[in-house]
Structures are given as C-alpha cells and as structure tokens.
Amino acid sequence: MKFEWRKQEKELYLPKAKPVELIVPKQKFYTISGKGDPNESKFGEETAALYAMSYGIRMMPKNDVTPEGYFEYTVYPLEGIWTLSDEAIADGREFNKADLVYKIMIRQPDFVTEELALANLEQVAKKKPNPNNQNVKFETIEDGKCVQMMHLGSYDDEVKTFEVMQRYCTEHQLSRRSLDHREIYLSDPRKVAPEKMKTVLRYFVE
C-alpha cells in the first residue's frame, strides 16, 4: 500500500485552524539555505532543485535501483524555516521581504540514508543541471515541542494567524525557543486562489 503523508501523518501536516501542541521527532530532509525575497526567481530555482532531488529518490526503482527498505510513497510537501537577518533584527526596522533568511526543504522517507541521499544528489545533478544543485544538503532536523496551526489564505496574511498562535502561547505559559518559524506549503500558488491556500505554521516552543 502506498504511504501517503496526508492520510498517515495528519497530526503533522493537517492541523485545524486553531493552535495545537505537538512533539515533532527527528526527520530527514534535502535542504537549501538562502536569503532575500522569495518572490524572486532564484527561490523558484532553489525549489526546483529540491523537487528534482526528491523525485530522484522516489523514482529509483524505475531506474532499476531499489534501496533497502524502500516503499511506495507520495513525495512530501515543500517546507521552510524562516527568520530575519541579524541586521534587520538589530536595527528593528520595518518588515521587508529582502531581509528574510530561510532554509527551504523537502522531507525524505526514513529509509533514505546519508550515503543514498548523496549518491542521488550526484546522479540527479548530471541529469537535471541547476545552479543550485551544489547547494542542496541532506540533514536531520528535530523540531521538538511545537505549537502549530493551519493558515487559510495568502502568505501576506499570515500575521493574523501568528497573532492567534502567540496568544495561545501566552495563555498556556509557552515561550518561543527562537524567532524562527516553520511553514509547510500544502497548496500550489500557481493553481490555487490566494484565499484558498493552506499553509501549516509552526512555532518552536518550551
């Protein structure tokens, strides 16, 4: 049976439109780090590199390579950890997308080892040239204790959802471990109207 994260991992990926607490375990990712406005073309090229690497793993059996422990699965959604540059934080200046610092990523199944991930990087880079291929890394990341919530609507309206999450943290004596936050993109902005887009927003708390 095909593993589908939307069905088997609802707690992680399909929260309700109200804050919930959860513990997020260690997960494996292909990642790219960058900075600047995500509406610029380089962000799209970085995203394309991550998807190419992720589908490289997914399609291995069709290329006559079946990794140990492999199972049929749906490729995970794009995610990102976002914050502001140190300079913007120190200056306390008004929000500007040019000041954003990010690490975007796509989760990989547990059977993916570092050796397999790095070998796939080499293979895909040869088949699908992209200036960002050399910047893709394979990492294990543990979010730990979090508060998350489904945001419905445009990315530019996320501040409203963040305010709800912050009130929840205050009311439940939770503090954020950092100014970073995670976003999980469940909608394709090229195909879904802004007001109908779904994005999981996650704070790291203690």
Automatic annotation (TrEMBL):
Where does the record place the GyrI-like small molecule binding domain? Answer: 24-199
InterPro entries cross-referenced by the UniProt entry: GyrI-like (IPR029442), GyrI-like_CCH_Lin2189-like (IPR008319), Reg_factor_effector_dom_sf (IPR011256)
User: What name does UniProt use for this protein?
Assistant: GyrI-like small molecule binding domain-containing protein
Q: What is the organism field in this record?
A: Enterococcus ureasiticus
